[in-house]
Design goal:
By secondary structure, the protein is α/β, with parallel strands linked by helices. The chain has a single domain, classed as Phosphatidylinositol (PI) phosphodiesterase (TIM Barrel). The chain is built from nine helices and nine strands. Strands 1-9-8-7-6-5-4-2-3 form a nine-stranded mixed beta sheet.
Length: 250
């Protein structure tokens, strides 16, 4: 399969240099030359896809409690930036629609991790995929939908079967290639220490792409590039992408 993606993917925007999963983080990542981004998406209580990693609000906003229990009108008024520093105070959690407008206008790629609130895996996968289909309609470069939750990927496949999907793994099952194939995925994304040269070769032989997260160490990145890795999710957007040519995996 053709693979239009840059090798380097900015984790949660540029989630160490700015408040993660905010438009500010995407802009700072772009200022460092990033052309592909990763972020997390879940649903508000009234079904609006918005960016947030955790199931609860306290770590990255000025509120507390279950993120999925609040409506978008309330969520959109939260401060999702002040925790990172006063320069970002007042930065709101963005909707997927707001992020799509920025990415499409600039021609940037997106690895969109479906991060359902507990118990909403299928519904979140369906809703996110439908919204991606709507927002990126007619675009040549559309998001790669990824998730640790197989049921979210099944929901995405049912709602928008033409969108490409990737299985995320933080531990390897007996046959990770078969696990990705069973979900109709085009790629496998593992924690980087799980990705061996042998697994990468098996994925490529099966017509799948091999990506890893979250690589911030130059030696680890160099070894993965030498193996022929297709994508590297990193927090170190101010260091690692500048050290090696960008390019794509081909």
């Amino acid at each position: 399969m053709s693979w239009p993606w840059p090798r380097w993917i900015a984790h949660r925007g540029a989630g160490r240099l700015a408040p993660e999963n905010t438009l500010a983080a995407f802009r700072i990542g772009a200022a460092h030359g990033c052309r592909a981004f990763e972020c997390d998406v879940k649903l508000s209580a009234d079904g609006v896809p918005f960016l947030l990693h955790d199931a609860t609000l306290e770590r990255t906003t000025n509120a507390q409690g279950d993120a999925g229990a609040r409506g978008w009108a309330e969520l959109s008024r939260l401060d999702a930036g002040g925790w990172h520093g006063p320069a970002f105070a007042g930065e709101p959690p963005p909707s997927l629609q707001a992020i799509a407008a920025y990415l499409i206008a600039n021609g940037f790629a997106l690895d969109l991790e479906i991060k359902p609130s507990p118990g909403t895996e299928r519904r979140t996968g369906e809703a996110v995929a439908a919204e991606v289909e709507r927002l990126w309609h007619g675009q040549a470069l559309r998001p790669l939908l990824s998730s640790f939750q197989p049921e979210a990927l099944r929901g995405a496949q049912a709602a928008a079967p033409r969108l490409e999907r990737a299985l995320l793994l933080d531990k390897l099952p007996e046959d990770p290639v078969a696990a990705a194939q069973a979900l109709g995925c085009v790629a496998l994304i593992t924690e980087y220490r799980l990705m061996s040269a042998g697994l990468r070769q098996r994925l490529h032989a099966a017509g799948l792409r091999a990506l890893v997260y979250t690589v911030n160490d130059p030696a680890a990145a160099e070894a993965l590039i030498a193996q022929g890795i297709d994508g590297i999710v990193t927090d170190a957007v101010d260091r690692l992408p500048q050290r090696w040519p960008e390019g794509t995996a081909g």
